[in-house]
Design brief:
Distance between the termini: 81 Å
């Protein structure tokens, strides 16, 4: 398979990732949410591997590792919330702390290796990523959606629109699209939620 074919396959995998990511933020149940985001992360991983085969694996290795980390985290959390026992929740909390520690170490390494002019963008990305990982585990539907919106905006900045000011003209259009569709999914979720009118309560007329 030629490099062009690998690149085309990568775009197809990116579109599949977008589909699952959009679907994920329409789901209220935590276990189903983590299952769908786990599948999305797997296709995200495959996308980076395909791009690596097209352009050189050294340029995509760190992104592939991040996608693999996301896949493992989401699928483990799926299992934890699916069981939904005190023991699984305790194990989940320990796993969460381990995942935060790994993300902190990897993120710090990335920040230190980023160009000095745009290092603040990567610091912002690290902080929002850690916040998102923690908010994924918290109960309710709001924490994860608010944090993923902020995280997606930070990731879009790291995909180089702002870096152009410093002479870095690399663009990751599919990466930007994935994050944009996450934000759109959150917007659609709240629009659907706002559109659901509360049911009128049954009232009895006084005689």
């Amino acid at each position: 398979m030629t490099n062009n074919w690998f690149f085309i396959v990568a775009q197809i995998l990116g579109l599949i990732t977008i589909t699952f990511e959009f679907w994920a933020y329409q789901i209220k149940e935590k276990s189903k949410y983590f299952l769908v985001t786990g599948i999305a992360s797997f296709f995200w991983l495959m996308m980076f591997l395909a791009i690596g085969l097209a352009t050189g694996m050294d340029t995509q290795l760190s992104l592939a590792i991040a996608a693999a980390y996301s896949t493992i985290r989401n699928l483990v959390f799926f299992r934890i919330f699916k069981k939904n026992t005190p023991q699984s929740k305790e194990a989940g909390l320990i796993f969460l702390l381990v995942m935060v520690a790994i993300a902190l170490v990897a993120g710090t390494f990335t920040v230190l290796n980023a160009p000095e002019q745009v290092r603040w963008i990567h610091v912002l990305g690290l902080v929002t990523a850690l916040t998102f990982v923690i908010c994924q585990y918290l109960p309710g539907v709001h924490y994860v959606r608010i944090s993923v919106t902020i995280y997606a905006l930070a990731v879009i900045l790291t995909q180089t629109p702002l870096n152009i000011l410093y002479g870095d003209f690399r663009w990751n259009i599919m990466g930007i699209s994935i994050e944009v569709f996450k934000i759109l999914s959150v917007v659609v979720f709240y629009l659907r939620r706002a559109g659901k009118q509360p049911r009128a309560q049954l009232q009895f007329e006084r005689i």
